[in-house]
């Protein structure tokens, strides 16, 4: 999903330069489910090498949800976004129980983890449902 919610006026995604503009180093990691059994997806090293290639991205990356196959799915959909508070001098790296750096705390309603890709990637997907 593209970050267009008003939450992203206050929070920033370091993988993006702006709406639909990714940092040059950011790489999509949502794979098409039909290719998860391929040998390329069997190790993090092979998967990374494959996704660094244009052809590999075209074959293996899932596109944005709700788009047709002709909508260049190899541009990818990111699962590894890190949302951090854009306070000058604050890197967003903190313990979960540390206080917020400003006076407007957000409340986490639910935390979920997905370990289904644990054997093929070095990522652990963490989802936070925030009250905004």
Give an overview in words.
The chain has 132 residues and is α+β, with helices and mostly antiparallel strands. The protein has three helices and six strands, in the order H-E-E-E-H-H-E-E-E. The chain has a domain at 7-88. The protein starts with 6 loop residues before the first helix and ends with a strand. It has helices at residues 7-10, 44-51, 54-60; strands at 11-12, 16-18, 21-22, 84-85, 107-114, 125-131.
Taken from the alpha-carbon principal axes, the silhouette is extended
- What string, H for helix and E for strand, traces the elements in order? HEEEHHEEE
Number of helices: 3
Distance between the termini: 17 Å
- Quantity of strands, as a count: 6
Question: What topology, given as strand order, has the largest sheet?
Answer: 1-4
Cα-atom radius of gyration = 16 Å
| Average pLDDT for all residues | 61
Low-confidence stretches: 76-105
Measured by DSSP, the beta-strand proportion falls in: 15-25%
Largest sheet: 2 strands, antiparallel
Helix content: 10-25%
Kindly name the structural category.
alpha+beta
GO molecular function, one term: sphingomyelin phosphodiesterase activity
InterPro entries: Sph/SMPD2-like
Write the layout of secondary structure elements.
Elements: H1 7-10, E1 11-12, E2 16-18, E3 21-22, H2 44-51, H3 54-60, E4 84-85, E5 107-114, E6 125-131
Antiparallel strand pairs: 1-4, 2-3, 5-6
GO cellular component, one term: cytoplasm
GO molecular function: sphingomyelin phosphodiesterase activity
GO biological process, one term: sphingomyelin metabolic process
């Amino acid at each position: 999903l593209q970050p267009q919610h008003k939450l992203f006026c206050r929070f920033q995604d370091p993988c993006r330069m702006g709406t639909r503009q990714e940092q040059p180093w950011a790489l999509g990691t949502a794979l098409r489910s039909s290719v998860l059994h391929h040998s390329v997806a069997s190790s993090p090293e092979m998967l990374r090498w494959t996704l660094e290639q244009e052809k590999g991205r075209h074959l293996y990356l899932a596109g944005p949800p709700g788009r047709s196959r002709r909508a260049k799915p190899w541009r990818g959909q990111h699962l590894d976004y890190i949302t951090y508070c854009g306070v000058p001098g604050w890197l967003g790296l903190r313990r979960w129980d540390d206080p917020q750096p400003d006076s407007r705390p957000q409340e986490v309603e639910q935390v979920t983890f997905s370990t289904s890709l644990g054997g093929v990637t070095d990522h652990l997907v963490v989802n936070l449902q925030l009250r905004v």
